[in-house]
């Protein structure tokens, strides 16, 4: 979204929330446009406008949105819904149950995110040889916690402006962030 499109988007917010913007000077409004333009520079105008309209339609508090709320609305309308942690665990559990002789095939059939959390076909096989109660309690709990953290991490990363994403990718800090929030393979 370019600066002119940002100004159009903020004009909609100004019309929807006139009391909030009343009394702001031109310099302050220009600063707001600049900030929003930089935060949404990688996002298509149509999607941002749709996210703003979706926010306004659902708002019952009477205050304009902060940037993070609009980023979240953007994700809601532009990305397919993620599996819930329970749905993800059920996919992995099915793979565990079929892993005695088909661990590689079951592992390869998992979506990339689930493969990264499981770690390897051998891990599926090892979990398949464990007591069912342990798998359904300890392993399930650890998996779902890691899945939740990974989905949140990905959503937070996706919300970053493009230049900040590039900085994070080029600095190599992403690997340490992954480790810090438990993205390593789930162990027993």
Protein architecture, described:
With 188 residues, the chain is mostly helical. It folds into 2 domains: 3-78; 85-180, no CATH class. 76% of the residues lie in helices and 0% in strands. The protein has 12 helices and no strands. The chain has helices spanning 3-16, 18-21, 26-39, 45-58, 67-78, 85-97, 99-109, 112-118, 121-128, 132-159, 162-171, 173-180. The termini are far apart.
Descriptive keywords:
2 domains, elongated, mainly alpha, 12 helices
Chain-wise SSE layout:
Elements lengths: L2 H14 L1 H4 L4 H14 L5 H14 L8 H12 L6 H13 L1 H11 L2 H7 L2 H8 L3 H28 L2 H10 L1 H8 L8
Helix pairs in contact: 1-3, 1-4, 4-5, 6-9, 6-10, 7-9, 8-10
Amino-to-carboxy terminus distance: 46 Å
Helix amount, in percent?
A: over 70%
Order of SSEs, N→C?
HHHHHHHHHHHH
Q: How many β strands by DSSP?
A: 0
From the helix content, strand content and strand pairing, which structural class follows? mainly alpha
Overall 3D shape: elongated
Q: Characterize the largest beta sheet: strand count, sense, and whether it forms a barrel.
A: none
Mean pLDDT metric: 89
- Uncertain parts: 175-188
Beta-strand fraction estimate: under 5%
Rg value: 22 Å
Instruction: Tally the structural domains.
Output: 2
Count of separate DSSP helical elements: 12
């Amino acid at each position: 979204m370019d600066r002119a499109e940002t100004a159009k988007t903020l004009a909609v917010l100004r019309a929807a929330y006139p009391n909030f913007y009343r009394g702001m000077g031109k310099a302050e409004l220009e600063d707001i446009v600049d900030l929003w333009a930089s935060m949404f520079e990688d996002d298509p105008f149509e999607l941002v406008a749709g996210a703003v309209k979706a926010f306004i339609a659902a708002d019952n508090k009477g205050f304009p949105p902060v940037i993070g709320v609009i980023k979240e609305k953007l994700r809601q309308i532009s990305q397919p819904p993620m599996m819930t942690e329970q749905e993800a665990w059920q996919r992995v559990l099915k793979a565990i149950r079929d892993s005695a002789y088909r661990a590689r095939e079951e592992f390869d059939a998992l979506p990339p995110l689930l493969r990264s959390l499981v770690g390897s076909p051998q891990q599926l096989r090892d979990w398949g040889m464990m007591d069912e109660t342990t798998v359904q309690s300890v392993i399930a709990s650890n998996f779902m916690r890691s899945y939740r953290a990974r989905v949140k991490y990905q959503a937070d990363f996706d919300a970053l402006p493009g230049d900040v994403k590039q900085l994070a990718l080029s600095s190599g800090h992403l690997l340490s962030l992954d480790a810090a929030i438990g993205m390593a393979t789930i162990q027993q």
